[in-house]
Model the fold of this input.
Amino acid sequence: AEDLKPGEYQFVETEPALGYDLNATTIEFVISKGQEETLKVTAYNNLTPGSFILTKVDSEDKGNVLQGAVYDLLTEDGDNIAEGLET
Done:
């Protein structure tokens, strides 16, 4: 924001970025009289732990759930982070 009058201000996060936890910590800052330099304020957020449910279904009969298929979970770089995940 520009053209703030001298005084005390605060940021309060109302909605986090997608995939991150809400950071409800108030970030306080002060605009001083005669301040010429732009003040830089940094806010930090933690990634939200994710989860998933893997369901395998018959390609012909999409309502027919198939049990017992086994998968490995890989990162986008191909690193294996979990083995033997069963539907």
User: Anything to note?
Assistant: The beta strands are 7-11, 27-31, 56-57, 65-66, 70-74, 80-86. The longest strand covers residues 80-86. The chain has a mean pLDDT of 89.
